[in-house]
Design a protein that fits this description.
By secondary structure, this protein is an alpha+beta fold. It contains 14 helices and ten strands. Bound molecules: 3-hydroxy-3-methylglutaryl-coenzyme A (HMG) and NADPH dihydro-nicotinamide-adenine-dinucleotide phosphate (NDP). It comes from Chondromyces crocatus.
Length: 391
């Protein structure tokens, strides 16, 4: 379901109950529906006990909504779960400013992940690779028998890759379009099903059979163009802010110590949406930082440039996220988060997550390069430390 607007005037000053009612109205739901969905932090103890081992309860985390987002022309409410004050305000703030340039434009690759099958003790790697290449059709067919459901949805195994790693190691990648799933369990199933035949063809010892979290074929790209005047209370202030953000971005490109913190600011948004929607933040983080270092030097995931009176931001990062399976099977709160975004597509979720990452990055750089981070961030920290939840 789509919302007609992600700008909800006065939302920040409402009580928690008023916010839930306002969201229900905005989404055309019964007042009270959302409160029910979020009861017990959106997760019953009995469900938690079935989800993990040795459970002793459910650990709460603040769950909020970032406003003002427009992604590919569509207004989107962005659910965020985070323990850190000022992240949701920052995202809403930057999203408000980007609206003047048309919001966020995003695109996403197909949901391609690689299942790795490793074989070692291979004495003749070149011959082994030849035999594996000849058996491609057979191996792909077997993979697609395991992933029947995916094939019916228009996905499934699409391609195989073979590499000799040296020292008798060889690895086969089964590339799979996992549609709207994150894909880990799916790919592990495929890797385990194909493993023995791959080892037989390679003439070696079967090793690991597991997906790779380095999903560099499953990237999201997000762009925002912000007119200078939208960045400050006057054209002059906007100019200063735009130049400050572009310079901060350049600093991150030149210095790894800065790039890591810069990317932490990106992940403020990405992880908060991932947590809210029940996605695997460890998988997302591992891939993001490997991608940031893909040239051999750790670089920013998002950059900002000046172009003809506009500040132009671009983010590119791998994102393996799902709107089915995983924690979503059991977690009411996470399902509510997806309902707020109004999507049933993993690609669309990835684009919203990327937009959230670019937004939190912009807000942080704008604050850092103008007044400094302490005023905005610490005033909200102070509010949290005094326990004042509602204004
Ligand atoms: C905190 C702000 C937004 C204040 O900024 P401000 O200019 O004082 O805000 P404002 O009162 O003028 O409000 C502007 C908009 O911000 C939002 N907003 C503003 N306040 C609230 C609030 N209380 N509750 C909800 N929304 C809020 C809201 O959308 C509001 O629009 P309005 O509702 O008025 O139409 C700004 O200073 C900011 O963006 N700071 C950056 C904060 C940040 O990045 N925090 C993350 C923690 S620091 C970190 O982890 C990362 C870092 C910094 O190390 C990364 C890096 O180094 O790159
Ligand atoms: N290294 C890692 O990152 C690892 C992560 N994990 C965990 O694995 C979980 C994610 O695995 P994943 O395989 O995504 O989840 P699940 O196995 O929970 O769910 C995926 C299944 O959902 C079904 N499905 C229904 N609708 C769709 C659709 N539209 N698109 C795609 N699939 C659909 C498919 O089954 P069917 O076709 O039969 O209907 C598919 O196999 C996460 O909890 C993650 O933390 C686990 C191991 C390792």
């Amino acid at each position: 379901m789509s919302v007609s607007t992600s700008q909800l005037p006065g939302f920040r000053t409402m009580t928690l109950e008023q916010r839930l009612r306002c969201l229900a109205e905005t989404l055309g739901r019964e007042p009270g529906d959302f409160a029910t969905a979020l009861a017990n932090a959106g997760l019953e103890e009995a469900t938690a006990n079935a989800m993990v081992e040795n459970a002793i309860g459910v650990l709460g985390l603040p769950f909020g909504v970032a406003l003002n987002f427009q992604v590919n022309g569509r207004d989107v409410l962005v659910p965020m779960a985070t323990e850190e004050p000022s992240v949701i305000a920052a995202a809403s703030h930057a999203a408000k400013r980007t609206r003047a340039g048309g919001g966020f434009e995003a695109s996403v690759d197909r949901s391609i992940m690689a299942a790795q099958i490793e074989v070692h003790d291979v004495s003749e790697p070149e011959e082994a690779l030849g035999r594996l290449r000849e058996a491609q059709a057979e191996l792909l067919g077997r993979a697609n028998e395991v992933a029947k459901g995916l094939v019916e949805r228009g996905g499934g195994a699409t391609e195989l890759e073979f590499r000799a790693l040296g020292d008798g190691f060889l690895v086969v990648h089964v590339l799979v379009d996992c549609c709207d799933a994150m894909g880990a369990n799916l790919l592990n199933g495929i890797a385990e099903a194909l493993g023995p035949r791959v080892a037989e063809l390679a003439g070696g010892t079967l090793g690991l059979r597991i997906l790779s979290n380095y999903c560099d074929r499953r990237c999201v790209r997000v762009r925002a163009r912000v007119p200078f005047e939208a960045l400050g209370c006057s054209r002059a202030a906007g100019d200063v802010a735009a130049h400050g953000v572009a310079s901060a971005s350049r600093f991150a490109e030149l210095d790894v110590y800065r790039a890591v913190t810069h990317n932490k600011g990106v992940m403020n948004g990405v992880d908060a949406v991932a947590l809210a929607t029940g996605n695997d933040t460890r998988a997302i983080e591992a891939a993001a930082h490997a991608y940031a270092a893909r040239s051999g030097v750790y670089k920013p995931l998002a950059t900002w440039r000046l172009a003809g009176g506009e500040l132009v931001g671009e983010l590119e990062m791998p994102l393996s996220v799902g709107v089915v399976g995983g924690a979503l099977r059991a977690h009411r709160g996470a399902r509510l988060a997806l309902e707020l975004i109004g999507t049933r597509s993993a690609g669309e979720l990835a684009m919203v997550m990327g937009a959230a990452g670019l937004a939190t990055n912009l807000a942080a750089l704008r604050a850092l390069s103008t007044e400094g981070i302490q005023r905005g961030h610490m005033s909200l920290h102070h509010r949290a430390s005094t326990g004042r939840i509602t204004p």
